Amino acid sequence: MNAPSDRDLMDRARARDPHAFGELVRRFQPRVHRLALHLVRDHADAEDVAQETFIRAYRAMDRFDGRSEPFTWIYRIAVNLSLNVLRARKSARVRNDAGDPRLEEIGERTAGSGPNPDEQAIDRQYFQALAEGIDGLSESLRTTLILVLVDGVSHEDASAVLGAPVGTIAWRVHEARRKLKEFLKTRGIDSDA
User: Fold this and answer.
1) Do the beta carbons of residue 130 and residue 102 sit within 8 Å?
2) Cα separations (Å) of 192 from 29, 59, 105, 130, 136?
3) What's the whole-model pTM score?
4) Which of 4, 3, 17, 14 is nearest to 65 (CA)?
5) By C-alpha distance, which of 125, 27, 45 is closest to 82?
6) 3-state secondary structure 3-57
7) Handedness of CA 13, 17, 21, 26 (dihedral sign)
């Protein structure tokens, strides 16, 4: 038997199937948490955003109109909550890089991949500079870049999540990459960001 689609699960959840919404949470929670972590740059805040995303989605599921996929609808809630956290935390861009969870994640990924300690240090410097460059982007460029390049969301889905035309999404990705490349050059890093 095939697993039910996201839309089937949402329809069942709206009909008060007690297990259907739980299955949507299990499907989307890792991605929602990762998205929030990249946007808010704090483990505790990302946990809070992920939890609040699903609470709000559950409370509002009767208002889900089906014009978008459940995934993009839930992602839009997560993006909005993440941006609210950043706005509430005025000093969001002034962070201590040593405690940046994005860099911890990169370190975990590269630790067992075989590079020697010198290569790992170079990778860490590169990713630290990249994180600083991302933090320096405008809110719209940063959010679009994280959705499309970090989380792998298609331009069409990013358009639905952010409420912007696909062409605008493409421009934002291009502009964010251009600005990151310029930023990395100021740090002495030549990259195809």
Assistant:
1) no
2) 31, 43, 21, 11, 18
3) 0.78
4) 14
5) 45
6) CCCHHHHHHHHHCCCCCHHHHHHHHHHHHHHHHHHHHHCCHHHHHHHHHHHHHHH
7) negative
CA-to-CA dists, residue 112 to 13, 57, 102, 117, 120, angstroms: 41, 37, 17, 11, 10
What are the boundaries of each domain within the chain? 1-93
**Count of residues making up the chain:** 193
Under the banding of pLDDT at 50, 70 and 90, the label for residue 175 is: very high
Question: Tokens standing for 65?
Answer: 């109109």
For residue range 56-111, list pLDDT tens digits in order: 999 999 999 888 899 999 999 999 999 999 888 765 444 444 456 665 555 555 55
Q: What is the DSSP string of 66-125?
A: SSS-HHHHHHHHHHHHHHHHHHHSTTTTS--GGG-HHHHHHHHHHHTS---HHHHHHHHH
Q: What is the CATH number of domain 1-93?
A: 1.10.1740.10
